[in-house]
Amino acid sequence: METALTNESDLRSSMEILIAEDNEATSRLIDKTLVRAGFRPARASTGAETIEIIMRNPETLVLLDYRLPDMTAKQIIYQLGQTHSVAPFIVMTGEGDERIAVEMMKLGARDYVIKDGDFLEFLPQVVKRVTTQLATEAELRQTRAKLKDSERILLSLLSNLHGMAYRGHIDDERKMSFVSEGSIELIGYGPSDLTGERSISYIDLIHRNDRDMVLSIIRSAVKQLCPFQITYRLQCVNGYEKWVLEKGDGIFSPEGEFLAVEGFITDITDRKKAEEEIRRKNDELLATQNELRDINMHLEGKVRERTIQIERMLKQKEDFISQLAHDLRSPLTPLVALVPMLGKGPEHARDGEILDVIGRNVQYMKNLVEKTVQLAAINSSKVELNIRKVNFSKVLADVIRRKSHNFSERSITIKNKIDRKIIIPADDLLIMEVLDNLISNAVKFMPPEGGTLTFDAQLDDKFSTISVRDSGIGLTGEQASRIFEEFYKVDESRHELGSAGLGLAICSRIMKKHGGKIWVESEGLGKGTTFYLSFPVCVDQAEEFVLSVEQALGIRREGSSMFVGKGGP
Fold first, then answer.
1. What digits encode the pLDDT tens for the residues 179-194?
2. Number of domains within the chain
């Protein structure tokens, strides 16, 4: 900024503002709000576009969304830092997280705005406060630049004797025996006015509050045989007051007798004014920093308050789901029991078909409620798993045995290649739920002529990976990417009342609770599907794996020593 801003309107219109927000609706609302407040913002929707604009104009004030599609605010600031093009920024986020606020303020954020329901009301005040602070800082830089320039000029003046050189005494009147022509420019009096019998006393030109200090410093320096430097005020011929810098030293005869004081007096009024201006700007900046600190403290309180509100809403959601399940399950239970009985009368054959449809729909509603409750329970942070060492082969055998009639009806061949020694840390009831869902899905999507369902396992030093591979209808790439979403069904056209679309979502949550993961692979439609379950291995099983690898490599141990091959040490 080459000139100081004269009013608030100039400040708002001159400041380049960029809205970095990927949500088009939110970006437009912010734009309209700032335009009404007198600003003229630009907009960007990605991190790359934001960086490009800032590189062109690093002075741009950025309203930076914490999460853009291609990068976070932290990554944007890091990349800009690599090119020394970091612009001032205000972080905007929908996440009420104190850690994010603290982290971004440490990275240089001017402020931190949570995009809640009323953030557009106070956003213009935040932007105005930051732009005012930036303008104050720019003026301070300008003032400091002026001060440096003034000092440079002062050095140039001194080198060319722009000022008054003198020779005088240290009596109470500071009588001068010699002054240079520079006295005219300095104080408006010529050499003849300041020297001679009828001359003006130099002490009378010094500000009355500075006279004793000036004489004391000069006399003390002469006594100690050292040079002196004094800053004081002078009254010029026209009554104008100047700040001067006097540098001098005592002059002595070869015998050590004091003769006079010689020195140079120069005008430093501009420098003093600049220093005063800097002090004033520093005071303003300190006041602004104190204001920002108060705002930050208020913001931290707001973040804590929002966090408590979110936790309360999550608790309300859990209570709502539980209550919903209770209210729906109560009337459904007698319906499930009574509806089949109502359709058994021989004189009402058609009624029986209708009631059968009603019964299947009621059963579907009951299944949906139970699956929803199960999903909510697994999502709850209060659920604790009953983790113990589980023989996976035994759990699988139990599930296969319960499902044997399904395999017989659909002509499905089971191939179980699971090693009976594989042990996993798990809640066996939940793992049975996962296997039951995977097997039910495999059976459901087998071709009419039947197929094969293969179970296998791989073990390394960190994970046990179980595979469930079927020869069914397979999946497309899109289906595979969405199959673990809640309520997603691979074939919506089948309208299956037996499926709520929550089974695989429940499987995914269960695996995450176990510290493992589940994923699916398929080469395409008609080529079957393979589900993978990955569990952390038990410590003793990991040691057994390492020993088996050593044996395969011919490694044997004796105490703390290890030998390879058949030979001894």
1. 888 888 899 998 889 9
2. 4
